[in-house]
Amino acid sequence: MKQTIRDFDFAGRTAIVRCDFNVPLDAERNITDDTRIVGALPTIRYLMDQGAKVILMSHLGRPKGGPDSEFSLAPVAADLAEKLGCSVWFKSVGTVVDGSVREQAASLGPGDVMLLENTRFRAEEDDKDKAAQAPFAGELASLADVFVNDAFGTAHRHHASTAGVADYIPAVMGFLIEKELKYLGEALEDPKRPLVAILGGAKVSDKIPVIESLIKKVDALLIGGGMAFTFLKAEGKGIGKSLLDEEGLELAASLAKQAEEAGVRLLLPVDVVAATAFDNDAPAAVYSATAQEGLPDDRMGLDIGPETIESFTREIAGAGTVLWNGPMGVFEMPNFAEGTRAVAEAMAEATDGGAVTVIGGGDSAAAVTLFGYADRMSHVSTGGGASLEFIEGKALPGVEVLNERQV
């Protein structure tokens, strides 16, 4: 069991906290979705209330190995100050840690907050060589007494600010990571049955280990989105111009067989909404996905159809736990969003009925937020990649480095 911020006395101590403030910005650099900032607030407020001096850090976007004003965390600092109701010291420093930053860190009082500049302004942050990360990690650690990792979205990466800091000072998890591990862990290891997993997205080959892991745990596996067409093609069905993962064809057939042998109900689309082009206004119609001829050669599937929606929502309604990762179609286009919206609504209703519903981050999280169902889910993960690796059974470096709780 890893230590949390409840296991540490922060009075008069300086905490350096890895948050995930990788928020979307518009052309005027206004934050368009503050979900990740809101998710960090319970940990930040707890530390302030405990009398800690709080130093926050995060990456934003993918600056190319150096400072770039387009990726400055200045908008985040302003938003944090408003949400916390206090001043948040911030200075755009290309080196992230310099004399002025050290000076400010040393002058913090209990409950004071400062935010460092984008950690990816330093090329060492995500250098593939862990030894190359060490000097930067050491600089960050020198500012504080304890490291708090609360960035689940980057917990699957060994970066200087997500794992390297723990080589120098004690390391504990914040409330957000604790919540992520609780919901994802219980959903997989001790779920309320039946356990239903819903997978979408594009490529089968990207999610093979995840599917193999889920087949050993779930009662039913629902496949939608682009990857469904690879499964359908593996069954010999015509998929027209739909997305096909050629490398995943044999794998899809193998996974279907594994599911059958494990007694897992594998549900594929029985009908799809297909159009002549990847365009919201392209002519579209519903086609059977089970007929041998499948889709016409000039059509591409962009959403699940009404019969599939009925089948999937029925399965969700009977579930005790539902885990969802990946949209059912091109939900960003209104004409092909109904399948994803219907699954989100069914999950919200399942939550109301007592089921545990977990959204595995990424596009699924974006979808439930877009359709207004996020607050009716048991848990919406902040880390798509991290949640997939956790489901797969991989160790997360940003969690592995945390101090163990003494029994």
What does this structure look like?
It is a single chain. By secondary structure, this protein is α/β, with parallel strands linked by helices. The protein has two domains: 5-176, Rossmann fold, CATH 3.40.50.1260; 191-390, 3-Layer(aba) Sandwich (Rossmann fold), CATH 3.40.50.1260. The chain has helices spanning 35-49, 74-84, 99-107, 130-141, 175-189, 208-215, 227-234, 249-262, 306-317, 338-352, 362-370, 384-392, 397-400; strands at 14-18, 53-57, 88-90, 113-115, 146-149, 171-173, 195-199, 220-223, 265-267, 271-275, 284-288, 300-304, 321-325, 356-359, 379-380. The strands form three sheets. The chain has a six-stranded parallel sheet. A six-stranded parallel sheet has the order 9-8-7-13-14-15, sandwiched between helices. Strands 11-10-12 form a three-stranded antiparallel sheet. Helix 10 (338-352) links the parallel strand 13 (321-325) and strand 14. Helix 1 (35-49) crosses helix 2 and helix 6 runs parallel beside helix 8. The relative contact order is 0.13. The mean pLDDT is 94.
Task: Report a brief summary of the structure.
Helix content is 35%, strand content 15%.
Topology:
Blueprint: E1 14-18, H1 35-49, E2 53-57, H2 74-84, E3 88-90, H3 99-107, E4 113-115, H4 130-141, E5 146-149, E6 171-173, H5 175-189, E7 195-199, H6 208-215, E8 220-223, H7 227-234, H8 249-262, E9 265-267, E10 271-275, E11 284-288, E12 300-304, H9 306-317, E13 321-325, H10 338-352, E14 356-359, H11 362-370, E15 379-380, H12 384-392, H13 397-400
Parallel strand pairs: 1-2, 1-5, 2-4, 3-4, 5-6, 7-8, 7-13, 8-9, 13-14, 14-15
Antiparallel strand pairs: 10-11, 10-12
